[in-house]
Specification:
globular, four-stranded mixed sheet, Nucleoside Triphosphate Pyrophosphohydrolase, about 25% helix, 7 strands, about 150 residues
Length: about 150
């Protein structure tokens, strides 16, 4: 198995009225999150974001649709997921993006990774996220909107 690169993206998918798409991790009931995923060799961060959005939601986006926040979070990788990385890797750097889509966008969540998908108003989405970086990103998104 190819080991993951400890560089990832977080993509907050939202509507114009700030409803946030959340996905529930398969095998981890109650772990609601935005799209996340590791960079693959040769990809730019924007390409990683577009690929992950497609793989996890079925939504096709292009790099010009993304808002690159120029924000990176460094965090310790949960013990249960460290086996996916090279030996000795304990931290990941996550780059934050967002993309606005129409509310009626069809979501086809990835059955390998997620078991549910839902749209929540941003305040409820903040409260539902298990990840501090995801909570912070949603909160910041709400502050950025006019």
């Amino acid at each position: 198995m190819t080991k993951k690169i400890p560089v990832s993206v977080l993509v907050v998918i939202h509507t114009e009225d700030l409803h946030i798409l959340q996905l529930e991790r398969k095998g981890h009931a109650g772990f609601w999150q935005s799209v996340t995923g590791s960079q693959e060799p040769g990809e730019t961060l924007a390409e990683t974001a577009c690929r992950e959005v497609w793989e996890e939601t079925g939504i096709r986006i292009t790099p010009d649709m993304l808002v690159d926040w120029q924000l990176a979070n460094r965090y310790e990788i949960f013990l249960q997921w460290r086996h996916r990385y090279a030996e000795g890797v304990t931290h990941n750097t996550e780059h934050v993006f967002s993309v606005c889509v129409p509310r009626d966008t069809v979501i086809t969540h990835c059955d390998d990774e997620h078991c549910n998908a839902r749209w929540l108003p941003w305040r409820e989405a903040v409260d539902a996220c298990f990840s501090w970086s995801n909570r912070d990103a949603i909160y910041l998104l709400a502050q950025r909107k006019p």
